[in-house]
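Study both lines:
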Amino acid sequence: MLSVTVDELLRDPSKYMRQVEEGETFIIVQAEKAIAELRPISSSSKQLRPFGLCAGKFTVPDDFDAPLPEEILSVFEGT
């Protein structure tokens, strides 16, 4: 991993962007202190999960949106 100062980065940003596109990672340094990391975003080739993956394995109860019992509400509300 290479280090580059803020001044160097500002002098020629496109040079460093090209290197990042090629897979290089940089630590950005200011006053001899590492302040950031500049790296390529990993391209993920994950496939999206299909809709309905768990179809039929779960049913929403009829009372799903019914008010909670008082003892459970009091726990959430801290009373």
Summary: The CA atoms of residues 9 and 16 lie 7 Å apart. The beta strands are 2-5, 26-30, 33-38.
